Structure prediction request, 140 residues.
Amino acid sequence: MGHTLAEVHLQVFSDKSAIDDLASLEKTLISVEEFRGRTRSVAHPPAADRLGSLPDVLVLALANGTAVLLASTAVSWIRHRTHDIRLLITRKGDETSVELTAERLRGLGQEEIGALIHRTGRALEQERPRTAHEDPGHGP
Prediction:
C-alpha cells in the first residue's frame, strides 16, 4: 500500500442514531483491506457537564490511490441505509470536503453513481493549489 496521502475525517449525520451509523461505517471501512489499520474512531472532549463522550468522527489515513476506493465504499454504505443519512468527508490540511446524502443517491442511476464516485475520489486526492506566498513544506 502507498504512503499516506492525507488524513480524512468522516462524520455521519442521521435521522436515527448517528453513533450506530458511525460504528456501522467504521465496520465497513475496516472490512476493506486498504483501510484496515488506518481507520479509528475519535470522540471530541466532553462538555463540562458530561462524564464522557462517544465517538463522533472517524479518522482515516488515506493512502495514495485509495481515494476513489473510499468514495466507492462510502457510496455503497450509504445506499444500504434505510433512513436519511448525510456523510461529510473532510480532507484535513486544506479542509476540502465532500458531502454525500442518501436522499441524493436514491435518485441516481448506475452511470451517475459511477461519475459521482470518480468526482468524489478526485476531489479527495487533489491537493489545493498553493499560492506563490505559501511555503510548500508547511502548508497554507
